[in-house]
Amino acid sequence: MNDNRPAGHGPTREVSVADVLALPVLASGQPQVVTGVPHLDRPVRWVHITELTDPASFLKGGELVLTTGMPLPDDAAGVRRYVDELADVGAAALVIELVRRYHRPPDALVEACRLRGLPLVTLAKDVNFLEVTQVVHALLLGNQADAMRRTQRIHEVFTALTLRGAGPEDVVRAASEMCGRTVVLENLVHQALICEPSGDTVEESLTGWERRSRATRATGADDRTATSGPAGWLTAPVEYQGERWGRVVMLPARADGPAFGPEDITVLERTAMALTVARLIHPTPWERTAHRNALRDLVDQRHRSTEDAHARCAALGLPTDRSRFVAIQVDLRAVSGGTEAETHLFEELRTAGIPALVGELAPDRLGILLALRPSQPWHPIVERLCGTALSLAPRAVVSVGSEVTDLSDAARSFREAARVAEATPPDQSLPPDRSFHELSDIGLRRLLYALREDTRIQEYAERQLGRLIDHDSQHGTDLLTALRHYLDAAGNKTTAARRGGLSRETMYQRLRTIERLLDRDLESGEQRTELHAALTAFDVLRVD
């Protein structure tokens, strides 16, 4: 282990003046910072030993200048000129040894460095300047080699993502993991489509996104990777052949975190390039994918908190405060063209100016979450969507959940819509003034239809009616139909006989046979109810 490596120096941070002063090779000289304390974070590019009166002509900026003080001019004007030249060229700091010529720094030198903001460091003990240069240069070269290897690794990761056709979510996730910062992809109207938080919650990252994003549109920075805006976001455009699609944003760390460095810029530029390729090879628009993912997370309640859900949906343009929400499920019933239906419904709502999330929940199943104003009726909107859906898929079933007033209850509304869809047989009739199904439509028959795959329902129907069905099959009778007419007539034998086209005596005889076969009393209201439920279950079990 190299003891001359600065403590706490991370692989991605530049070597600063403070880092160099902390090295044992310099610490042994008892360094004291006389001026420029706020500037000790300046990066050190090189170390330069000089005994010249005009060292600035040999510098390029970023050097830590070491001197014994021997060449300093005697007059104050000469000292000011000496410091001005160092400051003008961008020297990182001036280190003067107080051993040979001086035992305290000259007042003119201190004043000149203070005025120019140049860190002035004194050494109370003799230090081997050559050893200092060797240690610092080795550190700098090692950091440069590390940086090159990390840059190469960045390029390799993004090249691999591109070659395997990674989608935008994978690209943004890789960028966030690589730099340890929150990365967001937004579209041209400043909606956050993908957010991969790092250290922050989704709520912290996305709250007030559009307002904050618009504030970071720095003049001249939109066409390149740059830090912009009052929040200091690092942004890069995502575009192809002059067509702009959006912007990828890297959020700064917390107040005590490191500033953006060259590697962050490299990561963001490669992220923008990989997103461009992903856009070209994946036909699904980013907004569509963002809506799908947001809906699925709402339905499955995968958000870390209610606040995260609010922030994410609001960043997609869905008003979450003082809104009413209605969940809609569109089952296309195995009709191809789900993507087309999704596109048409999305455009229908956008054209009407109705805030909503629209996305595929599963193959042939679309979800829609409407966000409505307090007094805005939802029935006309759903009817309009039904017209669009049925024009594309005539057998589609549109089901609606309950209206809710909080986004956190959207999952319940979607569950209700799903239950309505499960309880809707093919070609289920509807009232003449309505094209969608809702919870109030579910009666006994539709409830049993939803439960038809439950073996307990199947066993119950067979236990109640099996012997009667077997008798009809073996003897060519039709007692099951007679029972149906009787139960439909609420136990009125005369009505049952008329509906079956039978004489009353024949109906009486058949009912007695049914009672004997099933060991039931058809005069009992409770037993008639049990048989009616079993007969309804038997019917729905045979629905195609």
Q: Please bin the fraction of helical residues.
A: 40-55%
Instruction: Report the sheet-strand fraction.
Output: 5-15%
Q: Supply the number of helical segments.
A: 20
Give the biggest sheet. 5 strands, mixed
The CATH topology of the largest domain comes to: Alpha-Beta Plaits
Give the low-pLDDT segments.
Answer: 1-12
Radius of gyration: 39 Å
Distance between the termini: 75 Å
The CATH class assignment of the largest domain is: Alpha Beta
- Tell me, briefly, the overall form: rod-shaped
Total number of domains: 4
Q: Would you identify the CATH H-level superfamily of the largest domain?
A: Reverse transcriptase/Diguanylate cyclase domain
Number of strands: 15
User: Per CATH, which architecture of the largest domain?
Assistant: 2-Layer Sandwich
Q: How would you describe this structure to a colleague?
A:
The chain is of the alpha/beta class and 544 residues long. It has 4 domains: 17-138, HprK N-terminal domain-like (Udp-n-acetylmuramoylalanyl-d-glutamate--2,6- Diaminopimelate Ligase, Chain: A, domain 1), CATH 3.40.1390.20; 165-282, Beta-Lactamase; 287-442, Alpha-Beta Plaits, CATH 3.30.70.270; 450-540. It is built from 20 helices and 15 strands. The chain has a 5-stranded mixed sheet with strand order 1-5-4-3-2. It has a 5-stranded antiparallel sheet with strand order 7-6-10-9-8. Helix 3 packs parallel to helix 4 (107-116), helix 17 (479-488) crosses helix 18 and helix 17 (479-488) crosses helix 19. The two termini are 75 Å apart. Residues 1-12 have low confidence and may be disordered.
